[in-house]
Amino acid sequence: MIFEWFVSVLLLIGGAFILIGSIGLNKMPDFFMRLHGPTKATTLGMAAVLIAAMVYFSFTQNGISVKEILISVFLLITAPISGYMLIKAAIHHKLEAKKGTKGLDNIEDD
Amino acid sequence: MRLKAKLSWLPTPFRSLLLFVVWLLLNNSISVGHLILATILAILIPLLTFRFREPQPLILKPGLALRHFLLVLYDIVTANVQVAILILGSSKKLRPAFVKVPLDLSHEMPITILASTVSLTPGTVSAEIYPIPESITEDDKEPQKYLLIHVLDLEDEEALIKMIKQRYEAPLKEIFQC
User: Fold this and answer.
1) In which domain, by residue range, is B152 found?
2) How many CB pairs below 8 Å do chains A and B form together?
3) d(CA A102, nearest CA chain B) in Å
4) Where residue B139 falls among pLDDT bands split at 50, 70, 90?
5) B93 and B33 in one domain?
6) In terms of C-beta density within 10 A (0-12 exposed, 13-18 middle, 19 or more buried), how is residue A7 classed?
7) Would you call A88 and B127 a contact, using CB atoms and an 8 Å cutoff?
8) Which chain B residues are within 8 Å of A21, Cβ to Cβ?
9) Is B10 on the interface with A (CB under 8 A)?
10) Is residue B38 domain-shared with residue B84, that is, in the same domain?
11) What integer pLDDT is reported at residue A110 of this predicted model?
């Protein structure tokens, strides 16, 4: 079935992006760089998985399933906000950035 | 920038539309009953709650807003591929940096949208908005605002600031007319 191929490809792409986001979380040298993986790669990975779910349930059950769009939109809205709260807390705690980070003097004291 | 809607019974037209669509999506149906219920909720909830909120600028150019939304979606996909390449490459070669972007926007809602798009697009995470509200003295009413962002791999600071201002800030200014 063609839709099964489509769903499988989407799941693989989604899984790959989530994996890359997690690798970034583990591999990066400092906190600020670690944040980049989860805020971006994981969001797109989740979107791909949700589209796969939408296609799968639309084909296997009666009627189309569109709830997944809602989940994707809420994820898109909330991911940057949680990232923002984390980095704000990190700046407040004066976490050390990797050596050679430029523009550290742009951070103002509060 | 316009804060008040034309129709007093529909203070926030796009929030009403969003509520309407969300209700139908949650129920996964477009039967007559749900359409009526969604309409009632979409009109009643904003009327009951808009007094609790600070008035935010309305979207005055919906067509442009939709175009900007699609552009941001496209950028999110390309940004993800770029960041994936950066993550899988050698992390010693990365040049992380903090960059201060001067903002032309003044209202909270457009700034929030800008900060979120910056977080979701190429190699940048927004970190802070200066000046911090608590530190503003009463003498300077309208201080220049800055968005502090963390960049994963900085090539050219000027070019990055220019890109953010042109690609993401200018459309927002036009959408909200502020």
Assistant:
1) 62-176
2) 127
3) 4
4) low
5) no
6) buried
7) yes
8) 87
9) no
10) no
11) 59
Rounded distance between C-alpha atoms, residue A10 and residue A80, angstroms: 23
Task: Please report the pLDDT score of residue A12 as a whole number.
Answer: 93
Residue A102 lies in a domain: no
Q: Do A33 and B94 touch (CB under 8 A)?
A: yes
DSSP state of B54: P
B132 and B155 both lie in a single domain: yes
* Distance from C-alpha of B49 to C-alpha of B136, rounded to nearest angstrom: 29
- Asked if B142 and B72 sit in the same domain, the reply is yes
- What is the C-alpha separation between B79 and B91, in angstroms, rounded? 17
Same domain membership, residue B119 and residue B38: no
- What is this structure's pTM? 0.79
Closest partner residue to A27 (CB to CB) among B22, B91, B115 is B91
Distances B134 to A9, A19, B130, B131 between C-alpha atoms, Å: 50, 40, 10, 8
Structure-token match 């007093």, residue found: B8
Same domain for B78 and B99, yes or no, is yes
| Judgement on whether residues B49 and B66 belong to the same structural domain of the protein | no
Q: Write down the pLDDT at residue B108.
A: 78
Token pair belonging to B30: 């477009």
pLDDT at res. B129: 79
CB-based contact, B79 to chain A, within 8 Å: yes
Confidence of residue B103 (pLDDT cuts 50, 70, 90): confident
Distance from CA of A86 to the nearest CA of B (A): 9
Mark whether B45 and B78 lie in a shared domain. no
What is the residue-averaged pLDDT of chain B? 80
Domain count, chain A: 1
Q: Say whether A100 and B150 touch across the interface (CB within 8 A).
A: no
Q: What percent of chain A has pLDDT over 70?
A: 96
